[in-house]
């Protein structure tokens, strides 16, 4: 029987009674951290390979460990592995099974290692893989937004400030705003990844170890970019997990803002878009309803991810060096953050590609709120008026149009000339939605040519 078969034996003869069942359940993490099994085995194999390379264990031991781990992999993948609560966590479960399978070689694996540096390594390896997946999903969402933007470069909707009609913008330009946001999310993920991808192994419990470990070799075997340079820091800080969750939170916040717009836009009052039926649901009582459940849930789930960020920051803030069991609580928030963001990104990429744009409704709304008033002011400035005077002049014109219940572009020329003599027939060009949008040729502006350029640049970047 292996020494790790029951928990009371795991910690040696020092303990006079086993922990109660309640304490066992309270302290165990295996039911959630078993998710780290692949990283755990990967880390163990790299550690064992290095131990053999340094002559700390024999080549025969290494072969036994590899054989045992291959068998364990197969057992876990096929669902036959018997996870035991008594063995507390993923690390002890796998080690106990290894020892059962290969005997003493299994007991030698933990030489120069502690679960403290082991778990920190596992979480980093696992998270690195998830970051790569998430970056791909963020980029796919960017592509979906480009797919939606491209055919709608010349569709105009009102741009809002304070949710009041402000100036006309191209629908594609509006979508590209989100492409930029998700582009920064991709950058943040890449930046966090560099700090996630460093090796704690070798720190052992907290102080390092007296075995002649080759940490650089382990880091290289695991594809890590460096080693953690202080053993106390290596086993204890979870700043990399916090940083990742902060990046994930921002991505969710971007999705939440987009959700809010989709919800408004598909309401009857806007009627700017339709979302494919597979993303909406009906009401059990009101037969006419089609509800935007997916964007609403995404907006709601953003709160959950923000909560995980708070949980992790709070988890860390009071901890003295070095490892404390508090850190076992890092996993569930981290796992749920990854799962939530992953599902949301996948569903949004699909949903954005299925949106139908109602050009007429958007353009009618843009014509309603005197969205081209700034263009009239700019027109007068080009005729020589100081901007502040032009601004005041246009305010009078808007007042007149409001009283007549018409748009600025519907005021006759002689009426417009009453506000300023320099106004000529060409004013109607700048008062149209197209004229307004296309005048904004500044870099980053909504002018059609600029928007097309930016779509092209993103297409190239994402190719
Ligand atoms: N399950 C533990 C965790 O998630 C592993 C490390 C345990 N180390 C310890 N000294 N109790 O953090």
Please tag this protein with its features.
elongated; two-stranded parallel sheet; 3 domains; mainly alpha; 6 strands; binds arginine; 463 residues; Ribonucleotide Reductase Protein R1, domain 1; Fumarase C, Chain B, domain 1; Fumarase C, Chain A, domain 2
What would you note in describing this structure?
- The protein is built from 21 helices and six strands.
- The chain is mainly alpha-helical.
- The strands form three sheets. A two-stranded antiparallel sheet has the order 1-2.
- Helix 10 links the parallel strand 3 and strand 4.
- The two termini are 57 Å apart.
Query: CATH superfamily of the largest domain, please?
Result: Fumarase/aspartase (Central domain)
Give the amount of beta strand, in percent. Answer: under 5%
Provide the list of bound ligands, each named once. Answer: arginine
- Helix and strand element order: HHHHHHHHEEHEHEHHEHHEHHHHHHH
Average pLDDT taken over every residue? 95
How many helices?
21
Tally of domains? 3
CATH class of the largest domain: Mainly Alpha
Return the CATH topology of the largest domain: Fumarase C, Chain A, domain 2
Strand elements, count = 6
Instruction: Tell me the span between the first and last alpha carbons.
Output: 57 Å
**Secondary-structure-derived class:** mainly alpha
Rg of Cα set:
31 Å
Principal-axes geometry comes out as elongated
**Unreliable residue stretches:** 1-8
> Going across the major beta sheet, what is the strand order?
1-2
């Amino acid at each position: 029987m292996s020494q790790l078969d029951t928990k009371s034996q795991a910690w040696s003869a020092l303990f006079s009674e086993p922990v109660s069942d309640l304490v066992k359940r309270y302290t165990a993490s295996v039911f959630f951290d078993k998710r780290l099994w692949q990283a755990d085995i990967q880390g163990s194999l790299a550690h064992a390979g290095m131990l053999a390379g340094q002559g700390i264990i024999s080549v025969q031991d290494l072969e036994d460990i590899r054989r045992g781990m291959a068998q364990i992999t197969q057992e876990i993948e096929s669902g036959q592995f018997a996870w035991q609560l008594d063995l507390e966590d993923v690390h002890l479960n796998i080690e106990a099974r290894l020892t059962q399978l290969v005997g003493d070689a299994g007991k030698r694996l933990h030489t120069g290692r502690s679960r403290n540096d082991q778990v920190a390594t596992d979480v980093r390896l696992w998270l690195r893989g998830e970051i790569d997946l998430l970056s791909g999903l963020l980029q796919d969402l960017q592509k979906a937004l480009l797919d939606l933007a491209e055919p709608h470069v010349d569709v105009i909707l009102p741009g809002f400030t304070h949710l009041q009609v402000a100036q006309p913008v191209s629908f594609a330009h509006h979508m590209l705003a989100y492409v930029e946001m998700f582009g920064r999310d991709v950058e943040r993920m890449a930046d966090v990844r560099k700090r996630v991808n460093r090796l704690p192994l070798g720190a052992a419990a907290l102080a390092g170890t007296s075995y002649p470990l080759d940490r650089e070799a382990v880091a290289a075997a695991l594809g890590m970019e460096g080693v953690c340079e202080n053993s106390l820091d290596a086993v204890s800080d979870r700043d990399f997990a916090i940083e990742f969750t902060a990046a994930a939170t921002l991505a969710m916040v971007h999705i939440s803002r987009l959700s809010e717009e989709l919800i408004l836009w598909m309401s009857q009052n806007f009627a700017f878009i339709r979302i494919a039926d597979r993303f909406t649901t009906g009401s059990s009582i009101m037969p006419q309803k089609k509800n935007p459940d997916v964007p609403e849930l995404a907006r709601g789930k953003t709160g959950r991810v923000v909560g995980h960020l708070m949980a992790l920051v709070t988890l860390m803030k009071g901890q003295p060096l070095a490892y404390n069991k508090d850190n076992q609580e890092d996993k569930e928030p981290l796992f749920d953050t990854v799962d939530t963001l992953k599902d949301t990104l996948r569903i949004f990429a699909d949903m954005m590609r299925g949106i139908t744009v109602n050009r007429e409704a958007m353009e009618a709304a843009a014509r309603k709120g005197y969205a081209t008033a700034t263009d009239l002011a700019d027109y007068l400035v080009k005729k020589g008026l100081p901007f502040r005077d032009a601004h005041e002049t246009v305010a009078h014109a808007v007042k007149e149009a409001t009283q007549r219940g018409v748009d600025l572009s519907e005021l006759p020329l002689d009426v417009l000339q009453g506000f300023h003599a320099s106004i000529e027939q060409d004013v109607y060009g700048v008062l149209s939605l197209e004229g307004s949008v296309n005048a904004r040729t500044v870099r980053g502006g909504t002018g059609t040519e600029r928007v097309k350029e930016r779509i092209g640049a993103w297409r190239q970047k994402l190719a």
